[in-house]
Each structure stands twice: as structure tokens, then as C-alpha cells.
Amino acid sequence: MTHFPTLEALSAAGPPQGAKAPSGGSAVREATSVEAIIFDMDGTMIDSMGHHAQSWRVFANKHGLDIDLDDLMRRTTGRNGAECMRELFQRDLQDDEAWSLIAEKEALYRELFGPVFAEVAGFKSFYAQAQAQGLKLGVGTAGDQHNIAFVMSHLQLPTPPQAIVGGDEGFPGKPDPAIFLQVARRLDTRASACLVFEDAPYGIEAARRAGMRAVAVCTIHTPAQLAGPHVIASVRDYHELLNSNFLETLHVATS
Prior knowledge:
The protein has 255 residues and is α/β, with parallel strands linked by helices. It contains twelve helices and eight strands. A six-stranded parallel beta sheet has the order 4-3-2-5-6-7, with helices on both faces. It has a two-stranded parallel sheet with strand order 1-8. Strand 3 (136-140), helix 8 and strand 4 form a beta-alpha-beta unit. The radius of gyration is 18 Å and the shape is globular.
């Protein structure tokens, strides 16, 4: 299912919408150089979205709510916890109440997913390869600090990401670009030099608004659902990227 454009096509396309015009260097290098990769977490690093869906159903039943699960997932995936609860209850919950409710829901998720925890196939190998090539690595997720700690403790990455931004740090959720832009700031990298890996439409749109290119990780959505002028590849998992030498096709900045 892997879809890659040629480097010539990437260069001709220029920077993604929202990116600033190049300042110094050739236009081709500016359009294709990558200094950092920013990973979304759920559905992108880990194969967790089915268990998020299951936890939403359990949580809704507990609170006597009748939900259209597919619609709820469409409206909430990528949003921060408080935004998700306001979508679920369809009323303007106070912050304290909203965050208390999402904490309850996410505890259910961790209880369900923990015993069967799984990465998206090939993620750790791809992460190690990107790190070996000198790329800065960050995580930009709507998940809260408890979910982030849960994921990192299970993944056991040899070297942690250089920057992690979570959805409970006061930033609006996706498709607002704030989370990705904050990761770029913490990595000390301009937005146009960041490549985002995302599995959800709101996240793909957030990358576009941030002026970043994106790779669509199609764990729960089709390439068509994650399409955009800034999306340079669509894959099922990281084995496809490893087998196609994807990182070698990038112009990785060395400065």
C-alpha cells in the first residue's frame, strides 16, 4: 500500500501550505530537507485505537450515554481530553470536571490495552534508524501525561524522544497546530524542517496548518482519508518504510 512521491515532485511542490518562504540555501534543499520527525502517539507509535474505542464504549455505558462510536471517534481523535468530554456530553463542562472525566476514561483504556500492548509494526526499528541518521525525534500527542508515561514505560525506547508535548499542557487539540509547533520549538527546529507522522485526519490537518510535511500511517484510516498536498507518503506500518529505504530518500539536513 506504500505510496511515495519522487523527490523531484516534492521539490516542485515547494513548502507545504503555511510554511514560510526559504531564507538562504537552494529552494530544492529547503523543500526536501528534514531535521526532525514528530510522531503522534496513539495509532501512530502504538496500535491502540481499537482499545481507545473500546474504552469509550465502556465509559459511555457507565455514564448512561448512548453513543454512535464511529461518529464519536471521528469527532474526538486528536482532540485534547477536555475537548473530547465536551464533545461526548455535548455541553460546556468546566475544566475540572472535564479533566476528571477524561482521567476516568483513560484509566479504563490503560487497563484494557496494557495486557495486549503493541507498537505499530516496525516502529521501534524505524525510530532507531531515524535516530542513527541524526534526526531529532519528538512526540506531539493529545494524550495526557499519564498515557504518555504508560506508553513510554511499555515501549522501552533505548533513547527517549528529545521533546514530548501532551494534550494536558494547556494547548488546544488538533487540528489546531499548537501541539506540533510546540514540539518544534522544544526541538529548536523550524516548522518547515519537521516531518509529522500521523494516523488521523485532524492530525494530518494540524501538520498542514503548522507548515509541516506529513506521512500518513494508515492504521485505522485509508490513504484517501489522510490525503493532502503536504502528505509525502502513506503506509500501513513502519516495515513498509524500512523495506523501501524511506529515510534514505529524504534529504536529511546535516547542519
